[in-house]
């Protein structure tokens, strides 16, 4: 079998950086990415047959574990009837109804094929609905790679130190105002100055693209109030948190109702899917009803809908999130306990099946500035130690991690044991 080293060298000749999405190239941690052959439940298997306990879960979608039998069955059965029609199918309405039921702030929803499309379309819709150009986003939050949103972004652009991408016209970027996550006083000043020109605020209700930063008490409520006062649209980007931190997403977790919500990842069960939805009055501005244009050849793809619906069935089971949260808590407590034993300062944070670990002496991390001060070099050593021993973590100190329902107590115990050994090697 080919090694990852050979495969990576080969890929780099024909794919920029050898990868189809930058963080996969391991630039954030150094070394060579592992090439995956297959996955099942909580495990990944690389092309050399080595098994890893996976805490990336395809960056979030695999909340029920890899290749879940019910999801694979739904995909196979649907695929046999044809892969794409470019015409309406009943499954799309079933999906839309499910989303509206599970997330009550969504009265109408449109399916797209990625999180990027969802946020890009939601921004256009907010601009079309309000007739305003300016948008507010937060430093370190990532909302996909649409031009307006690649300003002081998180995720790969943060990992690579490119928060303002080349190729984004300054004339467009000037409409994006960036604020500090969790700083309501600063945002209030921004609204005093430009409030009547601001089409929307887009926010990750839990910031998962600069590791894991939870909103401080009152922050999300404050965004809601400012949007109400100035007639701006509040967009919760729940591409990561949706169906991940709770069945109703972060908006259910914190009890705040946004005007628009963007979804992705879990909703496609691993197939390429995104969605944006919200208030009927706003959603009715989209073509063909209204004048905001948005479309997609593969949008609402039947196989993707089938994978997503099968996943939504699994996660709607009673106690799914209680159990998922308990697993994540067990992992976080285990890591902390072993870190204390090894005298390694470590902070953890989590909600539902999503978590963050920080190599820091700080007692809490609430801002982009604070996360930037964490020990990235120590994370790199930790990452490689874990990888070597068969635990796959996100290859960046600025990404959240994910636990699935397929992780067993034994997997978590094994992870913690491995972490103890790796902590002992950290300088
Ligand atoms: N929004 C958030 C909060 C995300 O985490 C991501 C991807 N990690 C996106 C949008 C973009 O989604 P996609 O990669 O599917 O385009």
Quick structural overview:
By secondary structure, this protein is an alpha/beta fold. 38% of the residues lie in helices and 15% in strands. α2 packs antiparallel against α11, α3 runs parallel beside α11 and α12 runs parallel beside α15 (409-425).
Mind sketching the topology for me?
Elements (H helix, E strand, L loop, with lengths): L3 H11 L21 E5 L2 E4 L4 E4 L14 H11 L10 H13 L5 E5 L2 H16 L3 E5 L16 H5 L10 H4 L2 E4 L4 H11 L3 E6 L15 H12 L2 E5 L11 H6 L5 E5 L9 E5 L1 H4 L18 H14 L4 H22 L5 E5 L2 E5 L9 H5 L3 H13 L2 E2 L8 E2 L6 H17 L2
Parallel strand pairs: 3-13, 5-6, 5-7, 7-8, 8-9
Antiparallel strand pairs: 1-2, 2-3, 4-10, 9-10, 11-12, 12-14
Helix pairs in contact: 2-11, 3-11, 7-8, 12-15
Summarize the structure in words.
The protein is of the alpha/beta class. It folds into two domains: 172 residues, Aspartate Aminotransferase, domain 1; 247 residues, 3-Layer(aba) Sandwich (Aspartate Aminotransferase, domain 2). 38% of the residues lie in helices and 15% in strands. It has 15 helices and 14 strands. It has a seven-stranded mixed beta sheet with strand order 4-10-9-8-7-5-6, sandwiched between helices. A four-stranded mixed beta sheet has the order 1-2-3-13. Helix 3 packs parallel to helix 11 and helix 12 packs parallel to helix 15. The longest helix has 22 residues. The mean pLDDT is 96. Bound molecules: 4'-deoxy-4'-aminopyridoxal-5'-phosphate (PMP). 4'-deoxy-4'-aminopyridoxal-5'-phosphate (PMP) binds next to helix 4. The site of 4'-deoxy-4'-aminopyridoxal-5'-phosphate has 17 residues, from helix 4. Pathway: Porphyrin-containing compound metabolism; protoporphyrin-IX biosynthesis; 5-aminolevulinate from L-glutamyl-tRNA(Glu): step 2/2.
């Amino acid at each position: 079998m080919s090694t990852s080293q050979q495969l990576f060298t080969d890929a780099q000749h024909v794919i920029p950086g050898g990868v189809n999405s930058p963080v996969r190239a391991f630039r954030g941690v150094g070394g060579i990415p592992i090439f995956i052959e297959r996955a099942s439940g909580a495990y990944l298997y690389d092309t050399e047959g080595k098994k890893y306990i996976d805490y990336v879960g395809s960056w979030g979608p695999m909340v029920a574990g890899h290749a879940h039998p019910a999801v694979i069955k739904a995909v196979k059965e649907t695929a046999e009837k044809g892969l794409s029609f470019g015409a309406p199918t009943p499954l799309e309405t079933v999906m839309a109804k499910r989303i509206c039921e599970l997330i009550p702030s969504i009265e109408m929803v449109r399916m797209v094929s990625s999180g990027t499309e969802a946020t890009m379309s939601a921004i256009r819709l907010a601009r079309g609905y309000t007739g305003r150009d300016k948008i507010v986003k937060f430093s370190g939050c990532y909302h996909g790679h649409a031009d307006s949103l690649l300003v002081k972004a998180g995720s790969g652009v943060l990992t690579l130190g490119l928060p303002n991408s080349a190729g984004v016209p300054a004339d467009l970027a000037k409409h994006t105002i960036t604020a500090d996550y969790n700083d309501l006083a600063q945002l209030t000043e921004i609204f005093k100055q430009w409030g009547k020109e601001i089409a929307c605020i887009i926010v990750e209700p839990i910031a998962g693209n600069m590791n894991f930063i939870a909103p401080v008490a009152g922050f999300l409520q404050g965004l809601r109030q400012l949007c109400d006062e100035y007639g701006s649209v509040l967009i919760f980007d729940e591409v990561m948190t949706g169906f991940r931190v709770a069945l109703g997403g972060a908006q259910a977790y914190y009890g705040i109702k946004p005007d628009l919500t963007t979804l992705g990842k879990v909703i496609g069960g691993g197939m390429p899917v995104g969605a944006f939805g919200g208030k009927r009055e706003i959603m009715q501005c989209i073509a063909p009803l209204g004048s905001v244009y948005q479309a997609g050849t593969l949008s609402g793809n039947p196989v993707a809908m089938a994978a997503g619906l099968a996943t939504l069935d699994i996660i709607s089971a009673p106690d799914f999130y209680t159990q998922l949260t308990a697993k994540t808590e067990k992992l976080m407590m285990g890591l902390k306990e072993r870190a204390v034993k090894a005298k390694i300062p470590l902070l953890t944070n989590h909600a539902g099946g999503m978590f963050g670990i920080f190599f820091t002496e700080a007692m809490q991390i609430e801002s982009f500035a604070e996360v930037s001060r964490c020990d990235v070099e120590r994370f790199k050593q930790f990452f490689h130690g874990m990888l070597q021993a068969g635990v796959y973590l996100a290859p960046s100190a600025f990404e959240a991690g994910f636990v699935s329902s397929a992780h067993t107590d034994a997997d978590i115990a094994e992870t913690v044991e491995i972490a103890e050994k790796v902590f002992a090697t950290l300088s």
